[in-house]
Q: What sequence folds into this?
């Protein structure tokens, strides 16, 4: 990866009347990256896409593409091509004509059009399909035509607006990997819009997480998952057990936070004070099932509870354990580890390390509401 | 004694189906096929004659001044012009209706366009006469209100007045099929074309126009066939020189009471109209099936 930047947004704001869809958004997409914009529906991600592609103009701020400021440049003059949510293949044109469309618009000589289209169809594995109409292709093939139609123009950036959402689950899993490989192969910068955190995690080099018109965090998938810097990111990306507690005790490098019946130890941050309210997130895979009366394994936090339900999801097992508060604690482990799968009603001992608890000061009452909303969006 | 196993054949008939199909059968056979066949047969006999002859058909070449051929040719040309003019007027309206207006606005727009058409054609043509005649609304505006004309002009009874009324009368028949095909065009296709570098003209040429073609063809066919066979408008607003082929046929049937010749003329009209419809379908690359479907 070079230092070159293909897309840069500088303090972008977009308002529709009284409604601000996007507020003060800035980020840069390095050349050749697979960059995802992740957020629940209505968070402004499609507006961002329209601002980059030129279908809409920002109320304030600048859009830069491949080193040029493109504010006011119409969509047909930007070196950005888009794969639409519903693909938008031209239904009356053959696969060949669909892919050739952009080249013909650019007045590329006929012989060159032919060779470039055929080469592109080969890249996406559609050789032999050039005379078919889009309606005669499978969903996955149509997807590839839509991508080929963009890539053949050698754009600086390809924008993808949830193109996998219309596919069935199995094909979607398959296309995720295909898209990633294709992007690696051609090396073009992809900006991918999605509300599906798993899509973003699997494919992206970098992810920008958005909520309510703002970008909350930009980082590598691993960073976003393990070091979220905003409670929304922590709850939207991946699964979490959430707590809202008050600091009751502080020591040099740890704090004790109490949420009703549950009291836990976590790493201290410099600005913590006794009496402050905190939101805590705990990934289910960090909650471990411990032997009921073992002595060897003693993480800082331990709790006993009764197994409420056991959910098998292929290789992964989730246990929901009632620990005496309104929401059960979820623990997650892979099958085939030494651990025996507990049965419903069994009393178990759970433990987690202080360092695995992610905590944020709970400034607003409505923050918790927001998080619950985000969790619904996930489902 | 055993009873005879013979079942009356009448009982095997599904009377439900027959009864349901009856109106359709009566319609097709009694009101379409039978009279058409009768007329077709008549067209091959001379008045009062009993030998089959092509004389009625050949007579069009023996008219004084070839009046039938000249009127026929003029009607055909004018009808094509009417179809083309209606297309030019209706297309932008259909586009605005389908792609610019939203939800409720569309409904109001269609309602406003359609309301005049709830009134009988004859009354609407009289309304135009009220607008265009020497003492009409247009003259009043030009002479008395705006004072751009020194004296009223007779706008009626010429070819232009006739074309205007024709275009007005058949506007909806062109507008609605085009609207329906444009409404079915996904807006993201237009965005996709723009995104791939197409300017406005190319978007129209490669995306909008092809998508609207079934509607355009269907509109052209409707306007063409209905104005070709129209009698009212040329008779009421056309001038002495605006003779329409239907007037000629009317004369043969009613004035000359020569039903045999009238029948022959009618079938020439039908044949040419069918030929033009076929030509339109070929020209636009559409099939009758698709166009009827729209």
A:
């Amino acid at each position: 990866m070079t230092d070159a930047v293909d897309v840069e947004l500088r303090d972008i704001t977009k308002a529709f009347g009284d409604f601000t869809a996007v507020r003060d958004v800035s980020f840069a997409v390095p050349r050749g990256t697979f960059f995802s914009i992740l957020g629940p529906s209505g968070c402004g991600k499609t507006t961002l896409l329209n601002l980059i592609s030129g279908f809409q103009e920002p109320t304030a701020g600048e859009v830069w593409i491949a080193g040029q400021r493109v504010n006011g440049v119409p969509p047909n003059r930007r070196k950005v091509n888009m794969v639409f949510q519903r693909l938008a293949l031209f239904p009356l044109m053959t696969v060949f004509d669909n892919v050739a469309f952009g080249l013909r618009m650019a007045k590329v000589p006929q012989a060159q059009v032919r060779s470039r289209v055929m080469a592109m169809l080969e890249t996406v594995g559609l050789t032999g399909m050039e005379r078919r109409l889009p309606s005669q292709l499978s969903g996955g093939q149509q997807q590839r035509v839509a991508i080929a139609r963009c890539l053949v123009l050698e754009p600086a950036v390809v924008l993808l607006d949830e193109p996998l959402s219309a596919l069935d689950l199995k094909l979607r899993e398959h296309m995720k990997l295909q898209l990633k490989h294709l992007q690696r192969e051609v090396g073009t910068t992809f900006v991918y819009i999605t509300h599906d955190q798993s899509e973003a995690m699997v494919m992206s080099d970098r992810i920008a997480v958005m909520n309510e018109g703002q970008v909350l965090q930009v980082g590598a998938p691993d960073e976003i998952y393990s070091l979220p810097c905003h409670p929304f990111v922590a709850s939207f990306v991946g699964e979490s057990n959430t707590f809202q507690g008050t600091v009751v005790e502080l020591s040099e490098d740890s704090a004790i936070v109490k949420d009703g019946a549950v009291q836990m130890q976590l790493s201290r941050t410099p600005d913590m004070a006794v009496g402050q309210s905190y939101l805590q997130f705990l990934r289910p895979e960090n909650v471990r099932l411990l032997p009921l009366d073992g002595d060897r394994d003693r993480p800082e936090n331990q709790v006993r509870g009764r197994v409420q339900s056991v959910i098998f999801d292929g290789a992964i097992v989730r246990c929901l354990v009632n620990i005496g508060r309104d929401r059960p604690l979820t623990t997650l482990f892979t099958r085939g580890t030494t651990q025996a799968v507990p049965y419903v009603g069994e009393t178990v001992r759970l433990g987690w390390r202080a360092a695995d608890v992610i905590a944020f000061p709970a400034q607003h009452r409505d923050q918790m509401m927001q998080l619950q909303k985000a969790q619904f969006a996930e489902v | 004694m055993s009873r005879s196993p013979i079942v009356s054949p009448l009982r095997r008939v599904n009377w439900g189906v027959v009864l349901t199909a009856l109106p359709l059968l009566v319609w097709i056979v009694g009101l379409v096929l039978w009279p058409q066949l009768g007329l077709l047969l008549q067209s091959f006999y001379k008045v009062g004659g009993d030998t089959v002859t092509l004389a009625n058909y050949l007579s069009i070449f023996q008219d004084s001044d070839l009046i039938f051929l000249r009127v026929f040719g003029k009607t055909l040309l004018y009808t094509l012009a009417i179809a083309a003019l209606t297309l030019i007027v209706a297309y932008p309206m259909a586009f605005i209706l389908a792609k610019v207006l939203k939800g409720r606005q569309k409904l109001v727009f269609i309602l406003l366009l359609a309301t005049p058409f709830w009134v009988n054609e004859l009354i609407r043509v009289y309304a135009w006469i009220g607008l265009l005649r020497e003492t009409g609304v247009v003259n009043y505006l030009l002479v008395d209100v705006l004072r751009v004309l020194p004296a009223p002009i007779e706008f009626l009874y010429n070819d232009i007045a006739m074309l205007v009324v024709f275009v007005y009368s058949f506007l909806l028949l062109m507008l609605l099929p085009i609207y329906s095909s444009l409404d079915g065009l996904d807006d993201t296709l237009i965005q996709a074309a723009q995104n791939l570098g197409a300017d406005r003209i190319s978007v129209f040429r490669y995306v909008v126009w092809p998508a609207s073609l079934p509607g355009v063809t269907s509109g052209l066919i409707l306007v063409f066939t209905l104005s070709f066979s129209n009698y009212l408008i040329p008779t009421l607003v056309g001038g002495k020189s605006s003779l329409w082929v239907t007037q000629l046929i009317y004369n043969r049937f009613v004035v000359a009471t020569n039903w045999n010749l009238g029948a022959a003329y009618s079938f020439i009209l039908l044949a040419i109209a069918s030929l033009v419809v076929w030509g339109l379908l070929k020209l636009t690359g559409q099939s009758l099936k698709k166009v009827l479907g729209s």
Q: What stands out?
A: Chain B has one domain: 53-293. Chain B has 13 helices and no strands. Chain B has a mean pLDDT of 88.
